[in-house]
Every structure is written in C-alpha cells, then in structure tokens.
Amino acid sequence: MYEFAEKVNQSMSSVISVLFALGMMVTKNDFLSKDEIEILAEEFEVEVVTVNPLDELVVADDYDVEEDEEAVERPPVITIMGHVDHGKTSLLDRIRTSKVADKEAGGITQHVGAYQVEKNGKKITFVDTPGHAAFTEMRARGAQATDIVIIVVAADDGVMPQTKEAISHTKAAGVPMIVAINKMDKESANPDNVKSQLSELGVMATDWGGEHEFVPVSAHSGMGIDALLETILLQAEVMELKANPTRSAKATVVEASVAKGFGPVANVIIKTGTLRIGDNVVVGNTYGRIKAIKLDDGSNVKEILPSTPAAIVGLNAVPKAGDELVVMDTDKEVRELAEKRAEYDRAKVLSKTTKATIDDLSALIAEGQLKSLPVIIKADVQGSLEAIKGSLEKLRNDEVKVNIIHEGVGGVTESDLTLADASEHAIVLGFNVRPTGAVKKKSKELGIEIRSYAVIYDLLDEVKALLGGMMSPVISEEVTGQADVRETFIVGKVGTIAGCKVSDGSISRNAKARLIRDGIVIYESKISSLKRFNEDAKEVKNGYECGIMIENFNDIKEGDVIETYKDVEEQVTL
Ligand code: GDP
User: For 526, which of 99, 172, 442, 567 is 20 to 30 Å away at the CA?
Assistant: First the structure.
C-alpha cells in the first residue's frame, strides 16, 4: 500500500481514506488487490498497469519441450504411495537392492532423496520418500517432480483410507498411476478383491477393460518386481518423456538439510538440461554456486543429466522441498533474485492471506472466471457422504460444475488441507465434522476455508448459490470457543465432568455446545455447568483450565473437543 502511495505522490492517509470511504480497511503494509488499485487510480486520476509482483520473481520460461529438436528421451521419475504398512518402504528397498544402476556391488551408499535403477538398459528414478504428504506438499509449492505414481495396495488388506487419499492426490495432480498389488506371497492374498475395490473407485485394471496396469508383486520374495519395472518403462514410453541436455539446468528439490562440514545440502532431481559444478543457481529464495555434486552411489561427479537425482553443495541457505533450481548467468543475478523472493515472502507473511474465500470464489464464478469448483467432502458416516456426493454431482449449471477432488469419512485432516492448498480455489465441505486443534490452525495458516454443516440441504443450498455466482453464503452461527478435554471425572448422580483447557476463544456458561471426537460431531446441546476451581464461572478464557458439563451427555472422553457457538442473524446481501 505504502508503495502505491509513494508512486502516485499521495499521502498514505488520503489513500487509506479513499478506501475507507468504500468500506475497505487497509493498513500501511497490506497488499492492495487489483480492484483496489483500479479504484484508487480512478480517484487520483493516474494511469496504472498492474503487474503481478510474482512475475518478476519467476524466471521467465515459455520453453516447450515438444518443439525442442534437441530434446531426447529421459528416464521417468516415480513416487510410491499407498496405505501405511502396505509395503511402500519394503518395495523401494527391494527395487534398490535388486537393480542398482551401478555396476559395482557396493550399491547405493548415499542418501540423495531418490535413486536410479537400470532395467533393459534404461534408467528409472525412484523418489525415496514414499507417501502423498511429501508429494502434495511439493505440488502445493508448484513443483511436479513425479511422472508416474505407483499405488501400493496389500493383497491381504485391500483398499484402505490412505489408499483412497493417495488416489485422490494422484488424480488431482493429473499423474498416471500403476497399481502394485503387494504381499502376494501371503496365503491370505486376494488380488481380485483389490481389483474390485479399486474399480469401485474408478481405477479399473486393463484386463478388466480399464486403463490402469495392475502388477502383482511381493517385496519379500521379489516376485513381480521385474514386471513392475517393465510396466513403468512401457508407461514412460507412451508418455514420451523428454528433456534437452544441452540447455542450462532446471531441477526440483526433494529434500534439503544442513550436513556437517558441507553446509546446506539440497537433494534435487534434474528436470531438464545439464547441471555442472560452477553453475550459478537460484533455488527458491536461496542461491549459490555449485561446489559439489554427489550421486546415490556416493561418487562425486562434475555434471548430471535430466532425471538424475543428486545431492548438491554450495547454497547459502537451506531451500525447501518443492523449490525449483534454475541456473543463471552470473552470481549477481542469482543473489538478487533470491533476495527479492525472500523479501516478497516476508511481506506476504505480514500481509493478509491471499487464498480464496467463499466470497472471492462467488465473485470469480459470477465473472465467469471459474469453470469448475474443486471441493473436498468429509462426512461423519458413509451414508451421508454418498448422499452429498450424489447430489453434488448432479448440481451444475451451464457454466460451472462441482469437481470432487477427494472425499472421505471422518474429520478433516491436515492432508486434506494440503490437497486443497495444492488445488487452486478448492474448498473443504464438512458434514457433521468440525476442525479442531492442529487442523484448525493449519486451515488458518493456509487460508483455506472449511465449511461445516449439520443439515445436508444447507450444504447443497450453499453450493447451489455459490455456483449461481450470486450471493455470499448466509452465516448462521459463530464459533465462540473451543476447549480440549484433558481428563474426565464421573461424579455419582451428577454425571461426567470434563476437565478442560480452553484452546480458542472463550467458553461461556449456557452457551450452545457440541462435542467433537476425532473431528466428528458426536453430540450437540449446551454447556450445563462451567466451573473454575470448584467455583461456578460465567466465562473462561483461552489458556485457562475449567470443568465443563454438557447437558444430557455423559459419554465424554479424554481427547474430545468441546466447541461453543452462538447463532447470528446476519443475512448477507447479494
Ligand atoms: P509402508 O508403511 O507402506 O512403508 O510399509 P513397510 O514397507 O514398512 O511394510 C510394512 C510391513 O509389511 C512390514 O512388516 C513388512 O515386512 C511387511 N511387508 C512388506 N512387503 C511385504 C510382502 O511383499 N510380503 C509380506 N509377507 N510382507 C510384506
């Protein structure tokens, strides 16, 4: 804001008062929106051209591999995902020990965040951190390091919640997937069960007429590993993955840390070009000159080609996973760009969040800028989830449709928020579930709106209205406080008293209240008793301990959360 005032030769206070008159409260350090700037420009009769400040921070590149005649085939980069204990790590280990790219028996000695194996004379790169959390964190930062995802499902266990999550995350990223049915050595293995469960999720095996390859494997016996690698190579061939090794390099950071004696070390995978010792690089908001490049076999090399994973040394600080590494001509360029980016990041933290709220979304839809509304649905039970899903899928008008990127039974998780964060303009819709603690905090940090409903029609009405692009949602209640249940006391005829600590807002006597367990609303009524040190209290504020009883409800357990709220009458206008 203050920069705008300076540029147009106006005092800060006159800028603030113009906006204030229009009902917008801004302070000196806030970023102005494009609309606000346009209004101001008119008011002060100056001409403005808005440029996205980020454009300046991006190293411009309208390069298209398709048209690059020097582009040659590159190895595929693979990430393994799936439910916990289905064998992701075992599979990575098995592939690594059986097919190390290198001739020597020593094999892989160095952890560089990914490793390469060789099959039929071709290389394949495997990212070493399995799981969708890391995958989507990176995507949220704009990096797509993975070409193909392997979904591991244990043949004796079938599809589990994280299998579903992994599939949603992969689909949202638009990356092709291959299913590895693991633990085939087990007597209880039932691969057909896995196939039918996955077909219900729309992931159909090729031998059932679908488009996904299913490969039965055993990380223990080694069965099927060759077939899996061959399937990967076939898929890669179809994708015609290419890169130009003669360009200057670009790479994606998969992990980074400080190593004793080396300083910051970044584990990267080269996307295109050749990275050489001596190159000046900018990586997110860090920079430096490449001093050493170490491969997964522990050897030091002078240069690396596309899809090669390596640890690089020479940065001034530790970058973040998902940051992009770009080579520039001079050390001055990389330093200046890194410093500008760091400054932007600091300003952004200070300023308001830039994520879409429901209001912004409805404006975008009204303007016709949003053609599909990505939503994540979480509900307390399968029945309501199906009902909501069915109705939402039918809900669409000519311009906009609802795109369900993930759905699940249970409370909203941090992983849901990461997925929403990586998907532009996504919102999280909850039915009988409420965010608490870490999830609530993360949603605030990321600026992602979680809308919770207790009546299915309310949810549908609101989405309908949103699709119509015509109104802000009606806010019918305001959360006044949350308290964590630390312990419970059962007192004779009185009932269960929950020993709590207020974690947000404040708790008032007689307030309407709901009990939340694992993110799911268990019961709604009101606070019937509120005590501090055995004394009745009217209100207990954030950070303080208290004893709470809920009217007509005694099944309170340690770890539950009590949320209080009040109805508001406010009706938002068109
Ligand atoms: P992750 O959580 O998905 O990384 O799973 P792990 O790789 O840690 O494996 C979980 C458990 O399953 C471990 O006890 C493994 O020994 C076992 N396991 C993994 N793969 C196989 C397999 O192919 N066959 C059998 N019988 N057990 C397996």
Answer: 442
Best CA proximity match to 78, nearest among 132, 126, 118, 110: 126
Q: Does ligand 1 lie within 6 Å of residue 186's CB atom?
A: yes
Q: Compute the half-sphere exposure of residue 85: CA atoms within 13 Å on the CB side of its CA.
A: 6
Give the atom of ligand 1 at the shortest distance from the alpha carbon of 130.
4
**Residue pLDDT, tens place only, 412-465:** 988 888 888 887 778 899 998 988 888 888 888 888 888 888 888 888 888 887
- For residues 520 and 504, give the distance between their C-alpha atoms in angstroms, rounded to a whole number: 18
- Start-end of CATH 3.40.50.10050 domains in the chain: 356-470
Pair of tokens at residue 495 = 């009932």
Look at the pTM and tell me if it is higher than 0.85.
no
CATH 3.40.30.10 fits 356-470, yes or no: no
Q: Name the CATH topology of 474-570.
A: Elongation Factor Tu (Ef-tu); domain 3 (2.40.30)
Tens-place pLDDT, residues 399-413: 677 888 888 888 898
Domain 75-240 CATH (choose: 3.40.50.300, 3.50.50.60, 3.20.20.70, 2.40.110.10): 3.40.50.300
